[in-house]
Design a protein that fits this description.
The structure holds 2 protein chains of 2 kinds. By secondary structure, chain A is an alpha/beta fold. Chain A is 28% helix and 20% strand. Chain A is built from 7 helices and 7 strands; from the N terminus they run βαααβαβαβαβββα. Chain A has a 7-stranded mixed beta sheet with strand order 4-3-2-1-5-6-7. Chain A is globular and about 40 Å long. By secondary structure, chain B is an alpha/beta fold. Chain B is built from 16 helices and 19 strands. Chain B has helices at residues 5-11, 38-46, 77-93, 108-114, 146-155, 182-193, 208-211, 215-223, 239-245, 255-265, 308-312, 316-329, 355-365, 383-391, 394-400, 450-459, and strands at residues 14-16, 23-26, 29-32, 57-60, 96-98, 123-126, 140-143, 157-160, 164-171, 201-206, 232-234, 276-281, 288-290, 298-300, 344-347, 375-378, 404-405, 426-429, 444-447. In chain B, helix 13 runs parallel beside helix 16. Chain B is globular. The chains are: A alpha/beta, B alpha/beta. Chains A and B meet through helix 5 of A and helix 2, helix 3, helix 5 and helix 12 of B.
Chain lengths: 163, 471
């Protein structure tokens, strides 16, 4: 999976900046997407392209349990978030609805990847290739179950009895 | 080896258990509100599913509701639609709803315990991160997203990877419990362990500093577990817990039998092991005020705002975070917390809008007036809290001091209804999150206790509430 990086070099990107509370009343996902990251980066929805990835620091998605957060990011084209760590409800929401891939990275990847870099994520080998800089990093593998839910296409498509 | 309280509750709720896989956990109570449920009900309809246990599902509306006169129509069209949608969903699926006109309406985490819906040893979920509040009763209470809301509505179960048990001991005795509150304890904990300190864990709060607290104060502690990144927070039930829940509207008929079982089982064994441990000594802790844009950016009332270097202790991202926070908050390092002037005061939210919170705040307010520079409001956590407060005459104390006295709801905690800050306004707030824009675009939030918020309203700036004469 290839895409370009939008980097927010900070920790604790919370769900209130990903999608401010006033938009939780919006049911139309396309409209919701126009407000993604509005609390932090009001230009986000104009610069984001289909297939882009976000790179950020620790505790990404902390705060509210609003599933609107991964929904808004996914509907403006974000396919994966690469972060040093994730808040657990955000992580789970991302996977449950198959909205985007939450990928835990290490400090090397965090430091090595810059805004605009083109990278290639391979979840079968757990490798992240930085095409722009010709570097390779390791991603933390998904746990068995998370991998299965992702492969199935979300929580409601996952059938545990077929394991 | 012995087990922790969390492990005991977990194991007693396993429906399906497999190696290297999450467990399917039975859910005893599901609380539903208007914001995170509409898509879940749509999903049920699309797949022709029913709610499996409408009798274990309770709904109310809190996030969106106006806190002004309830007899007037709701002006915000989208809020109105979300509220009407919940009414229809509850009717269609046979779920008990405490609607706009119900005396039981209120913030879902305030009404659950008040009505005796929250019970020790139970698993409780709600599409809201502050579900951790119910852990104060020794329940395992988890905030979930909308996909999981649908899963629980359909199956009364949830797939969960088992979090790790984290022991936080609160030791000692506060010298001035009226001025140094449960809010100050939990802010001190988050300041120390950080907003990601509890990531992937369930916190059990233990020690004399916890058992000394009332049930309402314990709820304030557990409420903010999520701000430390924890999946949940809980406190072993004791006689205070059992007394609190006796004779509530939904208290089970066989309550005393249940209490006997809970007394025997709902505690952490002496030889149980926690995977993580932290101890806070509270003998000398000061009232806390947050200065930044996450709850970990907090300091003592007597301190000055730290420099990004002091705050970050060498971590470059933390440093950047602090710089951005100071810029957003329009504050400078070295400014004394007591010199920060405020424009607004919000006493409310699932963290601090229970009767005791209002009583404590009213002691500061009584006989005083809100500073002419400040607009202050009290939003009781539930209509029941409001009624009890009015029976005690607290409404009069607040109104006489020029506070606005509102109807129950989440209100300015998250800025979904008309109660929001204007850009640049600075608010002393008893809520739980000081994130950028949380209380309204460009609004600046300082997290404090109800006592500190009340004192700030009167003085126009933060003061050391330990120096006030309070009874």
């Amino acid at each position: 999976m290839k895409g370009n990086i939008i980097k927010y070099a900070r920790d604790n990107i919370d769900t209130d900046v990903i999608i401010p509370g006033q938009y939780l009343k919006v049911h139309d996902y396309a409209e919701l997407a126009t407000h993604a990251m509005e609390g932090l980066d009001p230009d986000f929805h104009t610069k984001v392209k289909e297939g882009d990835f976000i790179l950020s620091g620790k505790n990404f998605g902390c705060g509210s349990s609003r599933e609107h957060a991964p929904i808004a990011l996914s509907h403006c084209g974000i396919k994966a978030i690469l972060a040093l760590s994730f808040a657990r409800i955000f992580y789970r929401n991302s996977v449950d609805g198959a909205f985007l891939l939450p990928i835990e990275i290490d400090q090397d990847a965090y430091d090595g990847i810059s805004e605009g870099d083109e990278i290639d994520i391979d979840v079968s080998t757990n490798e992240i290739k930085n095409i722009t800089k010709n570097q390779t990093y390791k991603m933390k593998p998904f746990s068995e179950i998370i991998g299965k839910i992702i492969a199935a296409g979300g929580l409601f498509k996952y059938k545990p009895d077929q394991d | 080896m012995g087990k922790t309280l969390f492990e005991k509750i977990w194991e007693s709720h396993i429906v399906v258990e497999k190696q290297n896989s999450p467990d399917l956990i039975y859910i005893d109570r599901h609380l539903v509100h208007e914001v995170t449920s509409p898509q879940a009900f749509d999903g049920l309809r699309m797949n022709n599913r029913k709610v499996r246990r409408p009798d274990l599902t309770i709904a109310t509306m809190d996030h969106n509701v106006p806190t002004t006169d309830r007899s007037l129509p709701i002006l915000d069209q989208t809020s109105s639609i979300q509220i009407k949608t919940l009414e229809k969903n509850c009717k269609d699926f046979g779920i008990t709803l405490f609607g706009m006109d119900s005396p039981n309406q209120g913030i879902v985490h305030v009404i659950g315990p008040q009505l005796g819906i929250t019970l020790p040893g139970a698993t409780i979920v709600c599409g809201d991160s502050h579900t951790s509040t119910h852990g104060a009763f020794g329940a395992l209470a988890l905030g979930i997203g909308t996909s999981d809301v649908e899963h629980v509505l359909a199956s009364q179960t949830m797939w969960l990877e088992k979090p790790k048990p984290f022991e936080i001991r609160v030791e000692g005795k506060r010298k001035n419990p009226h001025a140094v509150t449960a809010k100050d304890i939990v802010l001190s904990i988050i300041k120390n362990i950080g907003t990601g300190g509890g990531n992937g864990t369930v916190i059990e709060y233990r020690g004399q500093g916890i058992t000394d607290l009332s049930m309402e104060q314990r709820m304030t502690i557990c409420n903010m577990s999520i701000e430390a990144g924890a999946r949940a927070g809980l406190i072993a039930p004791d006689e205070k817990t059992f007394d609190y829940l006796r004779d509530r509207e939904f208290t089970p008929k066989n309550y005393d039998t249940l209490v006997d079982t809970w007394r025997d089982t709902l505690h952490t064994d002496s030889d149980a092991k926690f995977e993580k441990q932290f101890t806070l000594h509270i003998d000398d802790i000061a009232p806390q005020v947050s200065w930044g844009t996450n709850p970990g950016m907090t300091c003592d009332i007597t301190e000055s705002i730290p420099s990004p270097d002091e705050y970050s202790k060498g971590d470059s991202n933390q440093k950047k975070g602090a710089e951005k926070a100071l810029e957003y908050m329009d504050l400078k390092s070295g400014t004394s917390i007591m010199d920060i002037k405020i424009d607004r005061v919000f006493i409310g939210s699932c963290t601090n809008a229970r009767l005791e919170d209002l009583i404590e705040a009213s002691k500061v307010v009584q006989g005083n007036k809100v500073s002419s520079q400040v607009r202050a409001m009290v939003v009781p956590g539930s209509q029941m809290v409001k009624k009890q407060a009015e029976e005690m005459g607290l409404d009069k104390i607040f109104i006489d001091a020029n506070f606005e006295w509102r109807e129950a709801g989440c209100s300015m905690c998250l800025g979904m209804n008309p109660d929001i800050l204007s850009p640049g306004e600075r608010c002393a707030s008893t809520s739980n999150r000081n994130f950028e824009g949380r209380q309204g675009n460009g609004g600046r939030t300082h997290l404090v206790s109800p006592v500190m918020a009340a004192a700030a309203a009167i003085n126009g700036h933060f003061v050391d509430v330990r120096e006030l004469e309070l009874n």
